[in-house]
Amino acid sequence: MINNLIQFSNEKFYSFLILFLLIFIYILYILFYKKRTTRQMCYENLDILKYISSILIILFHINIYMKVVYKIDFIITDVITRLAVPFFFTIAGFLIAQNENKGPNYIKNYLIELFKTYLFWSILYLPFGLRYIINLHIAWYLYPIAILLGILYIGIYYHLWYFPALFFSICILSFWKKRWSISLLTFISFLLLIIGSSESYFGYFNDFWQNIFQTYYFSIFYTTRNFLFFGLFYVTLGYMMQKKQLVWKNQYNYLLIITLLFFTLDCMIAQTTPGIDRNILISAPFFVFFLFLRVLYSPQLLPFIDKRKLRRLSKYYFFVHPFVLELLFYFKASYSIPLIFFLSLTMTHILTLVCLYIKKHYPSLPM
User: Fold this and answer.
1) What DSSP character marks residue 284?
2) CA 55 to chain centre
3) Tens digits of per-residue pLDDT, 94-126?
4) CA 261 → CA 10, 142, 264, 283, distances in Å?
5) pTM metric for this prediction
6) Domain map of the chain by residue range?
7) Which of 91, 137, 161, 270 could form a disulfide with 155 if both were Cys (CB 3.0 to 4.6 A apart)?
8) How far apart are CA 297 and CA 308, in angstroms?
9) What distance in Å separates the CA atoms of residue 127 and residue 58, rounded to the nearest whole number?
10) pLDDT tens-digit map of 299-316
11) What is the DSSP string of 17-83?
12) What dihedral angle (degrees, nearest 10) is formed by the CA atoms of 20, 25, 30, 35?
């Protein structure tokens, strides 16, 4: 591992990109850092965090599924964008904890609305899901089972896996918190996250353990990117942070920098050997924890922007961007790299505005 890491870090281009990443995030950190005389949380900053995360997810999928930027593949797909989904889960858990006192059936109603929205978009993406199922060359009578597994586990299309993961994570959290300690669930779910990270560090296991994982898990469940080994921890983390009323302390400044360096090093380690996927990194929870608190307890960021609008935009960016990528995918050979990025983000925004218009005039649609 050490030799691979040294070889990786000796590549000048990667070293430059890693240095750029550290400087960029450090600048953001300086912008965030203002000593406060109060411990007041700024919830509107979470809308900015969600919006940025939605942009990162689009960039991740552009590069993964269109392969347009080979040279900065590491910086895009294996460092920055790996934080987006953990932030989405953490924010969801935090807001559930904040809002559940609105009524005894809040979580139940939240889950119902979440499922209705998920089902609506699953139907829209069903043709793409059927295309994938057909390419598997399974018997036609197994199609309903494949669709059901898609809805309940990996999603009808590649980005929709997040919703069954979020749904079942909230179900477990809701069941657990009525009986046992949230701190205990945080610890247990972190252990499960470590197990789930086996897909990221798969190349570091010897042949015996690789065969065990492949035979008894990955050949059946395909991925650890699910509610049990991924979503549950971050949803619980967000819920716990709100319920415990954790606050930002000045000494956390150093821990934020240390966990950033740890996270970057971890990304490099995971990159130096083949893995099944690199969705789950052991270092990510620590950096997510401190950066989340830093953002939450920062003065209001971008006060001139309507945060409610950003919240709506981030939601539909996530839902509609695969439609745009599907369209652009067939023409990617004709476009330059900057143009692909520009068209992807611009067309996603336009399609999002269309969705907002439809939702405004037909509010009963579960979209």
Assistant:
1) H
2) 11
3) 999 999 988 889 999 999 999 999 999 999 999
4) 17, 47, 5, 10
5) 0.90
6) 92-258
7) 161
8) 19
9) 21
10) 777 777 888 899 999 999
11) HHHHHHHHHHHHHHHH----SS----THHHHHHHHHHHHHHHHHHHHHHH---STTHHHHHTTGGGG
12) -160
Neighbours of 150 (CB within 10 A): 22
Question: Residue type at 337?
Answer: I
Separation of alpha carbons 352 and 141, rounded Å: 36
Residue whose tokens read 């920098």: 257
Return the H-helix or E-strand segment holding 173: helix 162-177
pLDDT in tens, 175-227: 999 999 999 999 999 999 999 998 888 888 888 888 888 888 887 788 889 99
Instruction: Answer whether 276's CB lies under 8 Å from 192's CB.
Output: no
Which residue in 360, 356, 345, 358 sits closest to 315, CA to CA?
356
CA nearest to 68, candidates 355, 334, 348, 349 = 334
Band (12; pLDDT cuts 50, 70, 90) = very low
Amino acid 35 reads: K
Buried b (16+ CB within 10 A) or exposed e, 3-31: eeeeebeeeeebeebbeebeeebeeeeee
